[in-house]
Amino acid sequence: MSATTDEQGAPSGGLLSLLDRHHTVAPHDYNRWLIPPAALAIHLCIGQVYATSVYKASMVSHFDSSLTAVGIVFSIAIVMLGLAAAVLGTWVDRVGPRKAMFAAACAWALGFFVGAAGMASSQLWLVYLGYGVIGGIGLGIGYISPVSTLIKWFPDRPGLATGMAIMGFGGGAMVASPLSRQLLRFYDTDYDPSVSTSLANGHALTMLFVSLGVIYFLIMMIGVTNVRVPPPGWAPAGFDPATAKKSALITDRSVSAANAIRTPQFWLLWTVLFCNVTAGIGILEQAAPMIQDFFRGSDGTSSVAVAAAGGFVGLLSLFNMAGRFVWSTTSDKIGRKPMYMVYLGVGIVLYLVLALAGSTATAVFVLVAAIIISFYGGGFATVPAYLRDLFGTFQVGAIHGRLLTAWSAAGVAGPLIINGFLDAAGKPGELTAAEYRTALFTMVGVLAVGFVANLLVRAVDARYHEPEGTAAEAVQDFAEGEREGSVARGGSLRVYLSWGVMVVLLAYGVFQTLQTAAKLFS
After folding, report:
1. Fewer CB under 10 Å: which end of the chain, C or N?
2. Crossing angle (nearest 10°) for helices 396-403 and 264-294
3. In angstroms, rounded to a whole number, what is the distance separating the alpha carbons of residues 44 and 79?
4. Residues 219, 359: contact at Cβ < 8 Å?
5. Rounded distance, CA 348 to CA 363, Å?
6. pTM
7. Which parts of 48-201 fold into alpha helices (H)?
8. What is the pLDDT of residues 244-268, one digit of tens each?
9. Distance CA 35, CA 461 (A)
10. Residues 402-425 pLDDT 10s
C-alpha cells in the first residue's frame, strides 16, 4: 500500500464545506485501499435493517400490537430503500460520495432517534416515520453512495471492490443482532436473550435505538472522512483500459441513467435481479421453521430443536456475507454474465435437490440451502459491476439505484409466494417437507425466467451512448476548484486504522454468529 496524504488547510466555507464535491477529489497519490473500509463503514451500519427480528417480539409487547403491525416498520424501510435509491441516484452521482454518505448517516441516525421517541411515548406511528421512512431514505442513499466510487477506484477489479462493500451489508446483521441483545440486557437486567419468551421493556427499547443511532453515526463518519473520488486521468499502476476490455459486453463508452432505463439490457438485468432475490429471500425469510418442518416426524415432532434452527439461521448469514465477496470477486475472472448463469442455473438444480432430497439428511439440507443463500448475496454484489460493464462508469450509481427497485419488488414477491403456498398447505408447526415442494418448484420456475433473461443480455446499442468525451467532461467539472479543497494526507497508518476498525467489527459479528451456528451441530 502506498503512502497517502492528511487533511491540511482550513476550508474557507467552514466545516460543512468539506462536503462540497471539489473537496472530495483525491490527489494522485491517494491510497485507493482507504475506499473499501469507507464503504464498509456505511454498509455495516445500514445492514442493521436485517436484525430487526431481535427486538420484534419486545416491540409487540411494548406497543400491545401485532406482529403484522410491527413488521410494517421493516417493510416501510425496505420500500423506502428502493424508492430513495431510484429517485436520489442521480443526485448522489452529482454531489459526490462524501455529501451523499453524510446525508445517509444523518438520515439513518435521525431515524433511530425519532424511532426512540416513538418507543418512549408508545406511539408506533413515530417508529414508522423514524426508522421506516427517514431511516429508509438513509438506507437507500447509503447503499448506493459508495458503489460507483469503488468501481472508479478499482477499474481492474470491480467485482472485488463492490463485493467488499456489499459484503458489509450482509455482515451488518451479524454485528447488529448480538450487539442489540447485549444492549437490551444492559438496559433491562430482567431481559434474558437466551430465553425465547423473555421480552425487553420500553425503556430498554428506547435506549437501544438511541445507542444505535449514536454508534452508527460515529462509524459512518469514518467512511465520510476517508471517501474520495479519483482525480481526472487517474488509473491504477500498470492498468491499461485497452487491454482490460476482454468481453463484447464490456463497454468503454458511457450511458446516462435516463438512457439506461430505455434499453432492453436494463430491464433484462432488472428481471435477473428480481428472480435471484425472489428465490433467495423465500428461503431466508422462512429459514428457522423450514429446517424444522423438513425433519418433522409422523408424530408431529421435529428432530431439529429450536436452538439448532437458530444456529441454521446464523450459518445462513455467514454464507450470505461470504457469497457477496467470493462470488463477486470470481466474476472478475469468469465474467458477469457467466456468473449469473451459475447463480440461476445451478440455483435451479439446487432448488430441485432441496425439494426432492432435502429431507433425506440434515447435512444435505444445510449445505444446499447455504449455497443458495450465498448465490442470493452474490447476486447483490455482482450486479453493480455488471452495470458498469454494460453502461460504463458515467452514472452507474444512478443506474444501480433504479435497478434496486427489483429488490423492493422481490422483497414483497418472495415471502408472498412461499407463505401463500404454506398457508394453503396447513398450520405453522405442523408442516412437513412435502408441503414445501410446490413453493420450491415455483422458485425453480422463477429462476428459469431469470436464466433466460440473462442469456438474452447483449452489448448496449451505440444509439444509447453519450457523445464522446461526455464522461471525461463530467469528471473534469466535478474536479473543478480542486485546488481550493483540502489535500488528503496521512500515510499507511490511516489505512491500517480504518481497516482495523472494520475487521474488529466483522470479527465480532462472525464470532458471535459462529457461537450461534454451533448449536446446529451440538
Report:
1. C
2. 50
3. 19
4. no
5. 19
6. 0.85
7. 56-63, 67-95, 97-121, 124-127, 135-144, 147-153, 158-187
8. 656 788 888 889 999 999 999 999 9
9. 32
10. 999 998 888 878 888 887 888 788
